[in-house]
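Entry type: protein chain
Record version: 2
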Amino acid sequence: MLISAASRGVLHMLVASLFFALMALFTKLLAGLPIAEIIFFRALLAAVLCLAGLWRLGLSPWGSDRAGLLLRGVAGFLALAQGFWLLHHIPLAAATTLTHLSPLFATLLGIWLVREKVTLLQLAFFALSFGGVVMVQGFDYRITLLHLLVGISASFCMSVAYTSVRRLGKTEHPLVIMFYFPLVCLPLSLAALLLDFVSPTPLQWLYLLLLGLSAQIGQYCMTVAYQVAPISRVAIVSYSEVIFSILLGLVLFAEHFNALTYAGMALVLVGVIGQVLWKPAQHRGPLAVGEA
C-alpha cells in the first residue's frame, strides 16, 4: 500500500498528538514531584531507548550537524520545562491550549527558514483552527498573565525545536535527532534535581514510566511527521492534542469549560480536516508505508 508523504506526516502527527496528550496527563498526575525530577527521569528513559535503537541499527548517536542538533535539544528542554510547569498550575486542557500556539510560530519559521510555500487557503484553515484554540481557551479566571506569557514562551521554543527537526531531517536519522533531546535534558535537570529530590511513591514510579514511554512514542512520530511532510501541513494537525486533552481533563479531572470550548473544538476540527483534504500543487511523491 502506498501513501503520500503529506498523508504519512499527518497520520504520524495524529498519533504523536495522542501520546503527547497522555504525556501531559501523566505529568499532571505527578504534580507532587519537582519539575526537574520529572524531566530527568523522562529524559533518562528516552536516552536508553534511543541508544538501544541506534545500537540495533548500527548508527552513531552523534550525527553530523551537531550545532543544529544541540539547538533542537536546548529548545526542546526549555519548551518542556515551561510546559510541565503550566501543567502543574492550570487545568490540563488550558495548559495544552496555551502551548499550542507553536504551530503558528512553526509555520512562520518554516516560511522563513525552509522556504516552504503556503497557499491562501492553507492560511485560512490555519486561522480557523487558531481561532478555535482561542475559543477553547475561553475566559478562565484560573489563568493569569504569567501563565499566558509562559505559554507563549513555551510555544516559541517548541516552534524552534520543530523547525530544527524539519531541517535536520534532511541529514539525520530520527533517533539521532531524538537522542539530542535527553542529551541536553539530563545534565540540566540533574543539576536542579540534586538540590530538590523527592522520593517517588510506587504509583509515581509507574506514572514516570508511562510518561516516558508515551513521550518517546510521541517524539518519534512527531520527528517522522516533520521529516516527511511540510511544516505547514503537519503543524496544524498537532492542534488535535487540544481535543484529546479536553476529553482527558473532563473524564479524569472533571475539568469543565464554557460553551466557547465546544464551539472552539468544532472550529479546530474543521480547520484540521480542511488542511488534510486540501492538496496544494506542490506535493511529494508517494512513499511506501514503513519506510524510514
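Comment: The first helix runs from residue 5 to 29.
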